[in-house]
Write a structure and sequence with these properties.
By secondary structure, the chain is mainly alpha-helical. It is rod-shaped.
Length: 70
Amino acid sequence: MLGVASLVCALAAPFAIWQGSVAQRLARQARVPTPGGATAGLVIGWIVCGLTVLVIGVWILLLASLVVVS
């Protein structure tokens, strides 16, 4: 659920990663198959985190180039 929420709000992405990891660990300890939602939360969370870092980096580069040009 947090993985889907992170598509709307990037602040939820680290929580999706955390909860996905917890769910996978619990499934491993119980020796049951990993729930698909846990894997999806991890994947979407990491993708959103990566895209967020990329967007922030681009913004910093754009702002730095505007300062240098001015």
